[in-house]
Amino acid sequence: MTASGLFRLCGLAAVAGGALWEAWGGALFLMPGRFYYFGSIAALVVPLLFSVVLIGLYATLSGWQRLVGGTGLIVAVAGSFVAFCGSIWSVVLPAADVTPVCFYLAERGLPQHVLNWVPDLCTALVVVGAAVLSARALGRWSAVPLIGGLVGWAFYVTDFGSTAGLLLANIAFGALFGLSWVGLGYVLWHRGRQQARGLRG
Q: What residue spans define the domains of the chain?
């Protein structure tokens, strides 16, 4: 696959992932009775789509930024693997209880959020985004991945409160997180088209 084709593919993956993220959040409020299986499927597909996007961002890097971006990519793959296992587990074993796993992690001093792919993916996006910004790999839009990662972390952190203010902030940051992926998808698609034109020219 050519570089222009990779960027366009990653752009489509970012838009699809961002749109599915938004639908996932909407389904939580609009159809809670049917949310369970849709949420399990989304928890499998969304991180995989986002990981494809990170591969595209990684391809824009070179030198030491590529080394930094590779670290972020490893974190993203780990997060996607966790999502895959969790989604399969919840679909195949709807009555599965993760409490013993949480106790096991707590006893060993490990954070329970390792069972959640969102912080892994946001960390990866921040790391890769910082490398993209440092390399100015996306031109004037180079800050978009880093901003998206920081918004994702804001979404994750505000998910731990029971007050109305934190709930509203969580909803707002969740919507912005999905939109940041859609915007990143546009940037990558546009970059792919520019490269394709350059090759034809």
A: 3-196
